[in-house]
Design brief:
- This protein is an all-alpha fold.
- The protein is 71% helix and 0% strand.
- α1 runs antiparallel to α2 (20-38) and α2 packs across α3 (48-71).
- The longest helix has 24 residues, at 48-71.
Length: 156
């Protein structure tokens, strides 16, 4: 069952259960997927990987918004955004653990023979390819780990 089919099925179930929070969140996510399908010059059906990229983007948006709300003192809204992000994350593959990420970075550094920050591009390419099969990886975190492994500045 594709991710879109799963979302649609669970939307129907949440509507029958009269779960307003889950229903609204799933409607928003499905709308984001449909908008992504229609973006560009020709409408097309997204692959499961592309759908998961849309979901990851929706999670990131909600986490960022929750941070803004929390900073402004709107704790109830921040909690709602965080709960929506948590719900959407259940439809994404599990995130790669810190230990797995460290192992991927170490292997990429060794495989490329990298010795300085000049080699960061090659290491990032190798690490991204290796981590793709393990699960969901935050590119920013991966970049920070590679930078640290190469002895570069802590991050941007």
């Amino acid at each position: 069952m594709s991710t879109v089919d799963r979302l649609t099925t669970e939307l129907t179930a949440s509507m029958k259960a009269r779960d307003a929070f889950r229903t609204n969140t799933l409607r928003q996510v499905i709308a984001a997927v449909r908008a992504a399908e229609k973006s560009g010059t020709v409408a097309r059906e997204l692959t499961d990987e592309e759908v998961q990229a849309v979901l990851a983007s929706e999670v990131k948006k909600r986490r960022d918004t929750a941070g803004i709300y929390a900073g402004a003192g709107a704790d109830e809204r921040a909690a709602n955004e965080t709960a929506e992000a948590d719900l959407i994350e259940t439809y994404l593959p599990a995130a790669v653990s810190d230990a797995q990420l460290d192992a991927v970075v170490a292997a990429a550094v060794a495989a490329t023979g990298a010795t300085s920050m000049r080699d960061m591009g090659a290491v990032m390419k190798a690490a991204t390819a290796a981590a793709a099969g393990l699960g969901r990886v935050d590119g920013k975190v991966l970049s920070q780990r590679v930078r640290a492994a190469l002895g570069g500045p802590a991050g941007r």
